[in-house]
Amino acid sequence: MSIDITVPALGESVSEATIKWLKKQGDSIKVDEAILELETEKVTLEVNASSEGVISTILKKDGETVLVNEVVGQITAGAGAVVQSQTTNVADAKTAEVAKAAPASVNKIDPASMLPPAAQKIVNENNLNPSLIAGSGKDGRITKADALGAAQVPSAQVASNTQSASDKPVERVKMSRLRKTIAQRLKDSQNTAAILTTFNEIDMTNVINLRLRFREEFEKKHGIKLGFMSFFLKAAVEALKAIPSVNAEIDNDDIVYKNYYDIGVAVGTEQGLVVPVVRNSDKLTFSGIETEIANFGKKAREGKLSMADLSGGTFTISNGGVYGSLLSTPIINPPQSGILGLHKTQERPVAINGKVEIRQMMYVALSYDHRIIDGKEAVTFLVKVKEAIENPERLLLNI
């Protein structure tokens, strides 16, 4: 009995994907075994076998675009299918043995390896490349006359020592659907939003000391490490409450102010940047935020983020500092109107009460849509974040 392999629902507003087979035609499979992957514009989904048997037909090749509910292959179910697969494999093995035993074609002779002594001497003395010399002898062999002729043509020797650009090693890889989507969305963001970036710097010394004091106790009680992202996420929420336009978006001729705080946290993966969303961030504790971020990081590395994990953020935080970035201008994640960029913490001399001290400093950047956020609001937002991080007790006291 043949069973169709179809493309399942891919998520809201997603109708197509790029296919990658994990099994080959003729492979035996078990129930619920992963047989292919579908890469959408946001996530990669696995499709599992609905029945035990053999993949008898593959209708769509790796890299092709497939649609929801489209049939991409067939499974021949049952024990008979397994026998068929084994028989096919035996036949393939026998064919391979016959091909291996077949004599090589007499026409496939490398002229460079069949030089007579006289021709070899001319080639060596003139530093010629035998593969560039047209042989006039039997089966394309290079004769002494061919070698002399090549030695008298300067271009032959030049060609043997010069590598053209087209001969240099390159690797061409098809852009993944996720990478294409990232490229398109970021370009659309630049083309549609009036993006401007404002900067500030934050003295991280107090929050670093606070974290060091309570790190072990925090981890022991909550089972999760205390990082800096929870502080910044809490600080961002308080700043968003003070400056609502940064948490808003443009919808045609309307400005939509959002009275909830679903904060996207940018996570780098091997496939590209993804932004899972921490829901209701204003209602989560520090441990709750750290747990959510840790879970998203694990799911991102394993390729198990869902469409729901990545949809509906109101604001984004991106931490380029984990890669060593000292300063950057992040690009807005549409339809959002703002993104906070964090950077590397570095010791720098700072004037404190008239004296120079070495402090742990970080540059922060806010890229914002100038169509609905004025410069004063953007600067005030960053100042609010700065004040909260430099005085972390404000976050704990909610002031």
Description:
The protein is α+β, with helices and mostly antiparallel strands and 399 residues long. It folds into three domains: 2-101, OB fold (Dihydrolipoamide Acetyltransferase, E2P) (Beta Barrel); 113-127 and 135-152, no CATH class; 194-397, Chloramphenicol Acetyltransferase (2-Layer Sandwich). It is built from eleven helices and 19 strands. The chain has helices spanning 79-101, 117-125, 144-151, 154-161, 177-192, 205-222, 229-242, 286-301, 307-310, 375-390, 393-397, and strands spanning 2-6, 16-21, 28-29, 34-39, 44-48, 53-58, 65-67, 71-77, 195-203, 248-251, 254-257, 263-265, 267-268, 273-274, 277-278, 315-319, 338-342, 346-352, 355-369. Strands 9, 12, 15, 16, 17, 18 and 19 form a seven-stranded mixed sheet that branches. Strands 1-8-6-3 form a four-stranded antiparallel sheet, covered by helices on one side. A hairpin with a 4-residue loop joins strand 4 (34-39) and strand 5. 28% of the residues are buried. The model is unreliable at 80-88, 101-108 and 155-160 (pLDDT under 50).
Give the topology, please.
Layout: E1 2-6, E2 16-21, E3 28-29, E4 34-39, E5 44-48, E6 53-58, E7 65-67, E8 71-77, H1 79-101, H2 117-125, H3 144-151, H4 154-161, H5 177-192, E9 195-203, H6 205-222, H7 229-242, E10 248-251, E11 254-257, E12 263-265, E13 267-268, E14 273-274, E15 277-278, H8 286-301, H9 307-310, E16 315-319, E17 338-342, E18 346-352, E19 355-369, H10 375-390, H11 393-397
Helix pairs in contact: 2-3, 7-8, 7-10
